[in-house]
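Q: Could you predict the 3D structure of Nucleotide excision repair protein, with UvrB/UvrC motif?
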Amino acid sequence: MLCQHCHQREAIVHLTITENEQTRGVYLCKSCAEKTQEVSFVFHPAIVPEFLQALFGFNPASIEQPSEMTCPKCGISFSRITQAGKLGCSTCYETFEAQLEPLLRRIHGGGQNVGKVPARLGGAIKGRMEQRKLKEKLQSLIQQEAFEEAAVVRDQLRQIDQAQGGGIHDE
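A: Sure. Here are the predicted structure tokens for Nucleotide excision repair protein, with UvrB/UvrC motif:
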């Protein structure tokens, strides 16, 4: 696609502009994108640490940075990661786990990805999750010697299992 401004070069930048509740897309070449008045925010890699600090209260200097520790696969150091704002490879997650965990918890609000359930598998996955929760509840009730409540949960598990066409299985 050609640039919608100069009509000479290949468009490599796509801008989505919203004005007066109207949204439009503009395709520009690199040269026109640098000159346009419509681009009011340019994201430069050098500002990543400052951006993270402003957005999440993360200060790269506040994390204990081992000076000689580097990733065995890509060779990047943790101080370089904090400067660049990105990891060098997948092994960096394991190598710098102790330094990354507090940062990722702060950014994502937890240490576990809960994600979305795919629509076509959603019913089966949700059913298994419900079964697992009921089994945990059943074990807890048995330990508390709340046998009447445990019998109700056991019956719920049997109904789910019969609906799925199998017997009760332990995971």
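Q: Anything worth pointing out?
A: The longest strand covers residues 13-19.
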